[in-house]
Amino acid sequence: DIVMTQAPLSVSVTPGESASISCRSSKSLLHSNGITYVYWYLQKPGKSPQLLIYRMSNLASGVPDRFSGSGSETDFTLKISRVEAEDVGIYYCGQLLENPYTFGAGTKLELK
Amino acid sequence: EVQLQESGPGLVKPSQSLSLTCSVTGYSITSNYWGWIRKFPGNKMEWMGYISYSGSTSYNPSLKSRISITRDTSKNQFFLQLNSVTTEDTATYYCARFGYGNGFAYWGQGTLVTVSS
């Protein structure tokens, strides 16, 4: 199985400042078709997970452009610029390259 | 707008089967892929399996002997059955629509299933 390792597991951020979450995969997520099959999700308190970023760097519909995704074949970063109160929750990276599809352990973002 | 909603028993006894329904509105399940994901207490997320637009299925090997995903296209619903459950299957179960292009883009609200005698 592809292991997705997130860091940190929790982060406390002052509103208006930026935050970065790292995700590392145990195998390259770059397919021969040139697509990197890594995704980012946010689960807000009491809500279902929502898609933030697809295929490493593409912003999902309706997601503020304060969110951005980047990375290489095995190392990925979600950046949140100008953190707001509504960004609180648990962030997950995930891969859809191969079965079983796997997720990271989650990073809990709180406000200072 | 695509909407998904899970339904089923919230309490299942050990060794019995867990059965859930995902009702989809606003989109036909004969397109795209439709999956089940669960979140355990403590935040771990596990993909369980999917049924495709054609009815083919794929399962997480860790569950392969216990899981079955089926569908009823006339009702635009798909189903999860997990056999021989234990307390370790206690989790919130989500159904979701996904595509390799855009990930798990639509989720149900989730349903908590507790396995306990």
Detail the topology: elements first, then pairings:
The complex is a heterodimer of chains A (112) and B (117).
Chain A lengths: L3 E4 L2 E4 L5 E7 L12 E6 L5 E6 L3 E2 L7 E5 L3 E6 L8 E7 L6 E2 L3 E5 L1
Parallel strand pairs in A: 2-11
Antiparallel strand pairs in A: 1-3, 3-8, 4-5, 4-9, 5-6, 7-8, 9-10, 9-11
Chain B lengths: L2 E5 L3 E2 L5 E8 L7 E7 L5 E8 L4 E3 L7 E6 L4 E6 L8 E9 L3 E5 L3 E5 L2
Parallel strand pairs in B: 2-11
Antiparallel strand pairs in B: 1-3, 3-8, 4-5, 4-9, 5-6, 7-8, 9-10, 9-11
Outline the structure in words.
The complex is a heterodimer of chains A (112) and B (117). Helix content of chain A is 0%, strand content 48%. Chain A is mainly beta. In chain A, the strands form 2 sheets. In chain A, strands 2, 4, 5, 6, 9, 10 and 11 form a 7-stranded mixed β-sheet that branches. A 4-stranded antiparallel β-sheet of chain A has the order 1-3-8-7, with no helix packed on it. By secondary structure, chain B is mainly beta. Helix content of chain B is 0%, strand content 55%. Chain B is built from no helices and 11 strands. The interface between A and B is medium-sized, with 24 and 22 residues.
